[in-house]
Design goal:
The protein is of the alpha+beta class. It contains six helices and 18 strands. β12 (about 300) and β13 form a beta hairpin.
Length: about 450
């Protein structure tokens, strides 16, 4: 009896152990199957307001900045302005040593006086030669009259032939004297014209010397603030090939500009007059406001990246912002109210399945090649996650984006739909699972 009871107890324990083993084995098989199902990260479609914007960095600049150069060379004698000095147009900024230029003015003035004296002398010579010519011409007239009278007397037999010949000879000499006087007058006139040209040249040399002397005094060209001083007292300034920059004056720091480097892909959406916000490192908790005034048609290419300067005007009444500061710019380019928002990662997600099967799914769901590959016309593909983890591709046409979400223009996506934004694939998993197990079911 005891042996029988012992056998029954062992039999029950055996069946209990076998049952536990079956349960454990079944749970292990089920968990292994479950662990091979793909796992997805999803996001729920919502409705809201979207504002698209261009993000860029730029540099703050004064509205007008003028580089003040030195036209002449010399040694800096005095400096009357420093960094941050407020100056008015025409105010003296610096003085170069004028000694050498003063000497050049004196020399040019002396040369001019000599040329004027020479001109006066030659003018007097012209008058003398004119008088000599007039006298010679009068003598010719007299000799002509005398020769005619002598000829008449010779024909009448009153005077001899020798006397008549002498009279004719005297007339010829008088005519030669006229030609000589006329040549002397022409020569004197030429010398007078040359002297006048020399006087003009000397006047030009004097003006140049006086101008160079004036350039030794460096003046402010505009009203503004000195933002750079590049000289010191005693420094030599050499203006040989080009005018050296000695000061930089910024005009009216209460009105300034941001030069924002915007990517070529963004310039088509930027409009003149668009409101802009920007921040600077000096005031990290404060936003500043301005407006787009121009997109300059002067591209800059750095490592195959093409950018354009977008100019943003803004007011700086307290002069808090300084030239050269870095600005972090946001330029709104569009707004959509109460829009269906598609999470941006959903637009780039593509399930991890072989390409032939993917193309077959696109065919089943009438997804065009343009939408699935080229995004032509703004069409793209997102993947809905339905019951039992069934994925379905949907073609959508997108609008503006705020870099987190994108506006839906057309497509079978509605508020509350669940879209896949990422997939966690188990090692060694290939192909697609059957429907209901993380697969891709029919519509």
């Amino acid at each position: 009896m005891a042996l029988r009871d012992s056998y029954q107890a062992h039999k029950k324990a055996y069946f209990a152990a076998a049952g536990c083993l079956v349960l454990i084995l079944g749970f292990w098989v089920y968990s292994q199957a479950k662990s091979k199902d793909p796992k997805y990260t999803t996001s729920t479609v919502r409705r809201g307001d979207l504002t698209s914007a261009v993000q860029a960095t730029g540099t703050i600049n004064a509205l007008t900045t003028v580089s003040v150069g030195s036209y002449v060379s010399g040694t800096v004698q005095y400096i009357f302005a420093d960094f941050n000095t407020r100056v008015r147009s025409g105010q003296v900024l610096a003085q170069l040593d004028p000694a050498i230029y003063e000497a050049q003015v004196l020399q040019a003035r002396g040369n001019l006086e000599n040329a004027k004296d020479n001109l006066a002398t030659l003018a007097a010579n012209v008058q003398v030669d004119q008088a000599a010519l007039a006298k010679a011409q009068a003598n010719v007239k007299y000799q002509v009259a005398t020769a005619k009278r002598s000829q008449d007397l010779f024909l009448a037999g009153v005077v001899s032939a020798d006397s008549n010949d002498l009279t004719q000879s005297t007339l010829g000499q008088a005519q030669a004297d006229v030609q000589s006087a006329q040549a002397a007058l022409e020569q004197a006139k030429a010398q007078l014209q040359q002297a006048r040209s020399q006087v003009t040249a000397m006047e030009g040399a004097l003006n140049a010397a006086e101008t160079n002397l004036e350039y030794t005094t460096i003046l402010a060209p505009i009203d503004g603030t000195v933002v750079a001083r590049n000289i010191d007292v005693g420094q030599s300034v050499a203006a040989t090939l080009q005018a050296p920059n000695v000061f930089t004056v910024a005009q009216d720091l209460t009105r300034m500009q941001v030069y924002a480097a915007t990517d070529e892909s963004d310039t088509g959406n930027i409009r003149v007059g668009a409101p802009v916000t920007f921040a600077v490192d000096a005031f990290p908790n404060e936003l500043f406001h301005g407006r787009v005034s121009a997109v300059r048609l002067n591209p800059t290419t750095i490592q195959n990246v093409v950018t354009y300067n977008t100019i943003i005007d803004f007011s700086n009444p307290d002069e808090k912002l300084l030239p050269g500061e870095t600005a972090y710019v946001t330029i709104p380019t569009g707004h959509a109210s109460d829009a269906i928002e598609i999470p941006n990662p959903a637009l780039t997600f593509k399930p991890n399945i072989p390409k032939p099967q993917l193309q077959e799914l696109y065919r089943q769901y009438d997804i065009s090649r343009e939408a699935s590959t080229t995004h032509l016309g703004g069409w793209q593909v997102v993947w809905k996650l339905g019951p039992n983890k069934v994925l379905a591709p949907v073609a959508v046409q997108c609008g503006i984006t705020d870099y987190s979400n994108t506006q839906l223009l057309q497509g079978d996506v509605h508020e509350g739909d669940v879209l896949v934004i990422a997939q966690q694939t188990q090692p060694g998993m290939t192909g697609q699972r059957p429907p209901g197990f993380g697969g891709f079911g029919p519509r």
